[in-house]
Each structure stands twice: as structure tokens, then as C-alpha cells.
Automatic annotation (TrEMBL):
Keyword Signal attributed: yes
Official protein name in the record: Lipoprotein
UniProt KW Transmembrane keyword: no
Signal peptide positions (record): 1-21
Organism: Pseudomonas soli
InterPro entries (alphabetical): M949_RS01915-like_dom (IPR058148)
Organism domain of life: Bacteria
Length: 230
């Protein structure tokens, strides 16, 4: 009888350890930020945002960066403004290992003699675990504009989970006072159209947060004279 109880206790103990190991393996958590000096070691020139985390695949580090410069237009051979946005996911198996790039999204925008506005939407570019399976979902959103008036910005939103990639591309919505809105179109990737409901809901929520920026409202600048003043 004693042996039977002992075997039962050992079995329960092993079961508890296995359950604990499974929970630890599936856990997702945000870790303390990586110092900027360590980001420079990775070759990141101008970090805008970084997210340090741990998931079922190990330790991860998302870094958003931007580089401003000049480029030569192949048609006119003139110098034009250039902005390169990079979103890079690094990973490592242990603390002592060096971070290695798992994937990178790069967007280059050039603009000749017009207003150039390119950047990440840092408030919605982040890392999370939507379905609580221990595998991180990485969301990156950015916009780009080259023009001389009030025109839509090109918007790109991408979410990656493991090998899966889901995207939305489109234009911001412009709503001039007293005029019909224009822009606001979007196109979902085939993978997103067939994605689980939670993924589609997340991507749509990100789109809803950004597609009315930055021209959802138009109003006179505080420095402009009051047109109604006599």
C-alpha cells in the first residue's frame, strides 16, 4: 500500500513538473528594454522604438528604425530626398548568445522637391499574444506621403506570427470641411481574408486607429488670421 501511494505521489509530482514546463514553454511576456548602446551593436543607426519580449520560440527583440538621406533619381539624375524605414525582428536562444535577425521589413520612399512625410505609427506597432498560444504576434504599421497638397497617405500594416504574414495596404481618409471625403480605400491580403477571426479583428482595429490620420480633420492654423474678424 505504501509503494502504491509512493508511486502515486511520484506520478503527481512528475505530472506537475510537466504541466509547469508546458506553461513556461507557452508563456509570453514583455521584458525590460534593451539599452540603446546594445541596439547600436546590432547596426541600428536611428532606433525609433524597440520591444523586448520572450515567447515560445525564445527571446525576441523588435526594432523600428529610420534613416534619412539622399538618392539619385534614375530618370532625371537629380538628387532627391530619401527615407528608409526598417522593422527588424531579432532573436536568440540564451542570454549569452548574440541577437540574430529573423526577418526584416524595409520600405524606401524617395521624393523630389515636394513634402515628404514618412514614419511608423509607433502606438500600434507592437508585440503581443492575441490567442494566448505562447507565440508572439508582431504588428508593424507605417505611412508614406510625397506631395504638395492635402492628399492621402499610403498606409501599410503587417502582422507576423511565426511563418504567417497578414497585410493591409491602403490610403488614409481625407475629410475636407464642406466637401466629400476621399481616400480611405484598403486591400487585405488573401492570407488575412482567410485568417482566424481574432487576427482579422486585430488588423481591422489597427486600421481603424490609423486610416483617418493625419487629415481626418482640417481647420485653420492658430496662427492664421481670423477670416471673420472685421
Amino acid at each position: 500500500m505504501f509503494a502504491k501511494h509512493r508511486w502515486l505521489n511520484v506520478t503527481l509530482g512528475l505530472g506537475s513538473l510537466a504541466l509547469l514546463a508546458a506553461c513556461e514553454q507557452k508563456s509570453f511576456e514583455i521584458l525590460p528594454p534593451i539599452p540603446v548602446e546594445q541596439l547600436e551593436v546590432l547596426g541600428v543607426q536611428t532606433p525609433i522604438k524597440s520591444v523586448h519580449f520572450h515567447d515560445r520560440e525564445g527571446e525576441g527583440l523588435l526594432v523600428l528604425s529610420r534613416v534619412d538621406g539622399q538618392a539619385t533619381d534614375p530618370d532625371t539624375e537629380e538628387e532627391v530626398d530619401k527615407v528608409v524605414l526598417k522593422a527588424t525582428l531579432y532573436g536568440r536562444a540564451a542570454d549569452g548568445d548574440a541577437f540574430k535577425a529573423r526577418w526584416q521589413i524595409e520600405q524606401e520612399t524617395t521624393c523630389a522637391g515636394l513634402d515628404l512625410d514618412v514614419d511608423f505609427y509607433t502606438d500600434v506597432s507592437d508585440v503581443g499574444d492575441l490567442n494566448k498560444d505562447g507565440v508572439a504576434e508582431v504588428t508593424v504599421a507605417n505611412h508614406a506621403f510625397c506631395g504638395g497638397g492635402i492628399d492621402p497617405h499610403d498606409i501599410a500594416i503587417e502582422m507576423r506570427e511565426g511563418q504567417a504574414i497578414y497585410t493591409i495596404t491602403g490610403q488614409s481618409l481625407i475629410s475636407p470641411p464642406g466637401e466629400d471625403p476621399f481616400g480611405g480605400e484598403r486591400e487585405d491580403s488573401a492570407s488575412l481574408k482567410n485568417a482566424p477571426p481574432g487576427v482579422r479583428a486585430h488588423m481591422d482595429a489597427v486600421w481603424q486607429q490609423v486610416y483617418k490620420r493625419p487629415w481626418s480633420e482640417s481647420s485653420p492654423s492658430p496662427d492664421d488670421p481670423d477670416e471673420d474678424a472685421e
